[in-house]
């Protein structure tokens, strides 16, 4: 990979985009939507090759789900771009402004970051989401997907570039796909100081760890999803069981799926059989010492005694740990010790406990009486997302358009000197 040539082209792209108005950028994004529609047969065919290869390698179905595309997913991808088109363009927004005592006018305005690289696994939908968010915010983007989705990503990026080339003002050089020929490409991107302005990892804990430890360019860390559901002693147990099933079973291979259910011991005997009923033998439950006999008595089939390493682990599969605690304080302490700062939820009718949980839990998204599955750019109204930031920089939680902006100060004077 010629990182210098790629970044030079992307830099040219972002410079062109920074001079364009919202109407021109939106027209280009609309043309991309039309190109994705037009080329969906070719994209599906390429994706089928990736899925076939993954299955032949023995990839588990929860991860195949992340890789595969179908009509419903493609409709959702295009709808996400259309939502981005409809959103307010952040570039040029005046964040703050004031006049100094000596008469200078100072304005703080939003500007693009510049050349952004995203390093991600599977999920060909990320290819479109990341591109569209970057383009609307006048950033150029280098996409480095995984080899498992290479055919899909090539077909998608070709459709994107064709769409951009088909409309006046489109900037095809604002997006590039790394060839994915060698793992060395990741290190090249992460050490391209002065060429890449920001890198975003999106994927497994191992990928994120590699990016954070290797990078010499700025990084926004998007964390793995070790998400918990705490069922408080005052919880509506039917609601808790329903939310547990949704959080664990709907799409177990995604980052906002539940990996551990934390249960107050006072309601364990009543709640765990309800949980077992909704899991319906489809989820392997790794139960701690207190919960194991309750689930065993309930006749739950897929029951395993939990090991210490099962707590604080991202299964990304139909597997869930169960931990019992004495009270909400112990639940909070346990979750803060074992989570990845992604998404956590409490089911409770005690609003004092709810407020305490939201105040004390260290995570980007903290829910009361709702599923962690809502941690998603689309669900938050962003149209799409770059990932879920789990760090405490300018972006935290689902990252939409504003996450790809920074600010600069514009100062107007009339001859002032210091």
Question: What this model shows, in words?
Answer:
- It is a single chain.
- The protein is of the alpha/beta class and 418 residues long.
- 41% of the residues lie in helices and 19% in strands.
- The chain contains 14 helices and 16 strands.
- The chain has helices at 3-17, 22-38, 40-56, 61-67, 71-86, 125-136, 150-165, 184-190, 205-214, 237-249, 268-279, 291-297, 328-338, 351-360; strands at residues 94-99, 105-112, 115-120, 140-144, 175-177, 198-202, 227-231, 258-264, 284-287, 303-305, 319-325, 343-347, 365-368, 388-389, 397-398, 405-412.
- The chain has a seven-stranded parallel sheet, sandwiched between helices. The chain has a four-stranded parallel sheet with strand order 5-4-3-6, sandwiched between helices.
- The longest helix is centred in the N-terminal third of the chain and has 17 residues, at 22-38.
- The model has no long low-confidence stretch (mean pLDDT 95).
Helices, strands, pairings?
Elements: H1 3-17, H2 22-38, H3 40-56, H4 61-67, H5 71-86, E1 94-99, E2 105-112, E3 115-120, H6 125-136, E4 140-144, H7 150-165, E5 175-177, H8 184-190, E6 198-202, H9 205-214, E7 227-231, H10 237-249, E8 258-264, H11 268-279, E9 284-287, H12 291-297, E10 303-305, E11 319-325, H13 328-338, E12 343-347, H14 351-360, E13 365-368, E14 388-389, E15 397-398, E16 405-412
Parallel strand pairs: 3-4, 3-6, 4-5, 7-8, 7-12, 8-11, 9-10, 9-11, 12-13
Antiparallel strand pairs: 1-2, 2-16, 14-15
Helix pairs in contact: 2-5, 2-7, 3-7, 5-6, 10-11
């Amino acid at each position: 990979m010629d990182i210098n040539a790629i970044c030079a082209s992307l830099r040219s792209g972002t410079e062109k985009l920074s001079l364009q108005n919202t109407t021109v950028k939106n027209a280009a994004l609309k043309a991309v939507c039309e190109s994705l529609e037009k080329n969906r047969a070719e994209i599906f065919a390429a994706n089928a090759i990736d899925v076939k290869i993954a299955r032949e390698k023995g990839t588990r179905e929860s991860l195949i789900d992340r890789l595969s595309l179908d009509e419903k997913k493609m409709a959702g991808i295009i709808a996400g771009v259309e939502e981005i088109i409809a959103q307010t363009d952040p570039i040029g927004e005046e964040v703050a402004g004031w006049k100094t005592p000596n008469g200078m006018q100072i304005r703080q305005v939003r500007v693009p970051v510049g050349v952004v690289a995203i390093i991600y696994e599977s999920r060909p939908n990320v290819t479109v989401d990341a591109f569209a968010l970057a383009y609307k915010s006048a950033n150029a983007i280098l996409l480095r997907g995984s080899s498992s989705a290479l055919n899909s990503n090539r077909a998608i990026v070709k459709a994107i570039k064709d769409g951009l080339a088909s409309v006046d003002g489109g900037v095809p050089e604002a997006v590039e796909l790394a060839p994915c020929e060698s793992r060395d490409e990741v290190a090249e991107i992460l050490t391209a100081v002065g060429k890449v302005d920001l890198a975003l990892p999106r994927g497994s804990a191992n990928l994120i760890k590699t990016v954070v430890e290797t990078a010499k360019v700025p990084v926004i860390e998007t964390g793995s999803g070790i998400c918990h559901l705490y069922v408080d002693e005052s919880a509506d147990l039917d609601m808790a069981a329903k939310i547990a099933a949704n959080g664990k079973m709907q799409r177990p291979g995604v980052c906002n799926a539940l990996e551990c259910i934390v249960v107050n011991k006072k309601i364990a005997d009543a709640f765990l059989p309800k949980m077992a009923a909704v899991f319906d033998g489809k989820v392997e439950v790794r139960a701690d010492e207190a919960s194991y006999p309750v689930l065993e008595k309930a006749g739950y089939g897929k029951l395993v005694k939990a090991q210490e390493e099962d707590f604080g682990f991202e299964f990304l599969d139909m597997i869930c740990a169960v931990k019992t605690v004495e009270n909400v304080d112990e639940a909070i302490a346990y979750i803060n010790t074992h989570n990845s700062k992604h998404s956590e939820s409490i089911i409770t009718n005690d609003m004092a406990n709810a407020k305490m949980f939201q105040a004390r839990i260290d995570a980007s998204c903290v829910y009361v009486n709702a599923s962690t599955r809502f941690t998603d750019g689309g669900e938050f109204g962003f149209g799409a997302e770059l990932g879920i930031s789990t760090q405490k920089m300018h972006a935290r939680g689902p990252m939409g358009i504003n996450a790809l902006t920074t600010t600069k100060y514009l100062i107007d004077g009339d001859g002032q000197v210091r």
